[in-house]
Specification:
Layout: E1 6-7, E2 10-11, E3 20-22, E4 28-30, E5 34-35, E6 41-42, E7 54-57, E8 62-65, E9 69-70, E10 76-77, E11 89-92, E12 95-98, E13 102-103, E14 109-110, E15 119-122, E16 125-128, E17 132-133, E18 139-140, H1 150-154, H2 157-183, H3 193-197
Antiparallel strand pairs: 1-2, 3-4, 5-6, 7-8, 9-10, 11-12, 13-14, 15-16, 17-18
InterPro entries: EGF, Teneurin
Keywords: Disulfide bond, EGF-like domain, Glycoprotein, Membrane, Repeat, Transmembrane, Transmembrane helix
Pfam families: EGF_TEN (PF25024)
């Protein structure tokens, strides 16, 4: 018919620009070397060559834009940052992400000594890291108190051994006293508890009548 872009009642935009065929679904099936909804892009080329503000992905024919640029052809600027962050930060969607030692909407506020690399700059004041002090965070604290990590101490092999050794010694003293008390041993007649552990019979240590009685 007069409209060469119509196939079986289906219409493709711009007749696929002569670089493809129109499918019954109304979409273009591009010839080799072409891409896009209208087959109007040479594969490996991007819209307007990304206007010089991005790189072309030859596989997808899409632009990968440089920072601060957006759009299909990288021809749109992201919201600008105040004073371009004064060269002391990075602009992210119109907001400055300042480098260490700088603050403010445009990163123009400087902290003393840029906090010596040991703190964050906020409203021209340094917030020092633990262990550092001073207006510029340059003074190392002489004494730094760190919280005790009881979990580490609990799993220390030496402390674990000392704990069980102390408990065992205390238990032996108590048991030794009770056994001596029950057997009637008093004072110097008391027998150390460990001797009971090697005895064949506790009866060996029971008090016997005196020969003079």
């Amino acid at each position: 018919g007069l409209d060469c872009g119509r196939v079986n009642g289906t219409f493709c935009d711009n007749n696929c620009t002569g670089h493809g065929t129109c499918t019954p679904l109304g979409t273009c099936q591009c010839y080799t070397g072409y891409s896009g909804t209208e087959c109007d892009q040479v594969r490996g080329s991007c819209p307007q060559n990304c206007t010089g503000h991005g790189a072309c992905d030859e596989t997808t024919s899409l632009c990968v834009c440089d920072p601060h640029y957006t759009g299909p052809a990288c021809n749109l600027l992201d919201p600008p940052c105040p004073a371009d962050c004064s060269g002391r930060g990075r602009c992210v969607r119109g907001i400055c992400r300042c480098k260490a030692g700088y603050s403010g909407r445009d990163c123009s506020v400087t902290c003393p000594g840029r906090c010596s690399g040991h703190g964050d700059c906020t409203n021209a004041t340094c917030s020092c890291e633990p262990g550092y002090t001073g207006a510029d965070c340059s003074v190392l604290n002489d004494v730094t108190v760190y919280p005790v990590d009881w979990a580490v101490l609990a799993y220390s092999p030496i402390l674990t051994f000392l704990f069980y050794f102390t408990c065992a010694a205390f238990l032996m003293i108590v048991l030794g006293y009770l056994i001596n008390y029950c057997l009637g041993h008093r004072g110097f007649a008391a027998i150390p508890f460990y001797t009971y552990l090697t005895s064949s019979s506790i009866a060996d240590y029971q008090l016997k009548p005196s020969a003079n009685m």
